[in-house]
Design a protein that fits this description.
52% of the residues lie in helices and 15% in strands. Helix 3 packs antiparallel against helix 4 and helix 5 crosses helix 6. It is globular.
């Protein structure tokens, strides 16, 4: 929905660099609408880009600079950490996924785009997890 504020999981941002053109195009389309990522997403992207994609730090910085022009950045705070622990306990998500969910909630987002979490699940009556690659 156009009025929904979106948060992007790391996998969505990484698909911008994918050789799978369908997924790369879809990731670009949803990110181009704007949204939020957290510092955690920046860190996870950098780690994968360096280790798996063998990008230089200059290339990583350049890519993240572009992403930061489109996305707002949510700092990781102690409140996000504490809420993330609650989410992990209540919903059974892995700890880092729970921190992503918590940051999305803290940012006031109503959509969390992720390929790795349960599509359609509603968190705290505010946030709906959405896999943008499902037909």
């Amino acid at each position: 929905m156009k009025t929904d504020k979106a948060f992007f999981d790391t996998n969505i941002v990484l698909y911008l660099l994918s050789e799978n053109t369908r997924k790369a195009d879809r990731a670009e389309a949803v990110i181009a609408l704007g949204g939020v990522i957290s510092v955690q997403i920046l860190n996870e992207f950098s780690s994968v880009a360096s280790r798996k994609l063998k990008m230089s730090y200059a290339e990583i910085r350049d890519t993240l600079s572009i992403i930061r022009t489109v996305c707002q950045i949510q700092a990781v705070t102690i409140n996000i950490h504490e809420r993330g622990l609650d989410i992990a306990e209540r919903y059974g998500y892995a700890l880092y996924d729970s921190m992503v969910i918590s940051a999305a909630l803290e940012s006031g987002c109503s959509l969390l785009y992720s390929e790795d979490m349960q599509h359609g699940q509603k968190i705290d009556a505010q946030l709906t997890i959405t896999d943008p690659f499902l037909e």
